[in-house]
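lol ok so funny story. i was supposed to be doing the assay writeup but got distracted and ended up predicting the structure for this chain instead. priorities right. anyway since i did it might as well share w the group, maybe its usefull for someone
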Amino acid sequence: MVSTQKESKQSKKRQNRIRIKLRSYDPTSLDASASQIIDAANRTGAIVSGPVRMPSKIRRYCVLRSPHVNKKSREHFQIKTHSCLIDLYEPTQETTTSLKDLDLPAGVDIAVKV
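and the output, tada:
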């Protein structure tokens, strides 16, 4: 039983993985780009895990309406950054070329780790 656990750990270490992290201010463009990546990976035979939605980062700003008078009058703004993770297991050379050739929507930041 101990040898099977060692073998499974070694097979996980040998297993190739591509981790793709997507970030965007617009959740609809984020979902569209995630579905394009998943379709391209499924066509090439890679095992897809995800998309996993990560918690949205919210940055809030408080700004004075006028610089010298009405100190109590303020405006509040916020920026939400949506993100998701996609893992591709056992990618082939076709998978990497198909991911490079994708035309993703504007405003989506992509970070790829091999």
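Strands lie at 17-24, 47-64, 74-89, 108-113. The first strand starts at residue 17 and ends at 24.
back to the writeup now i swear
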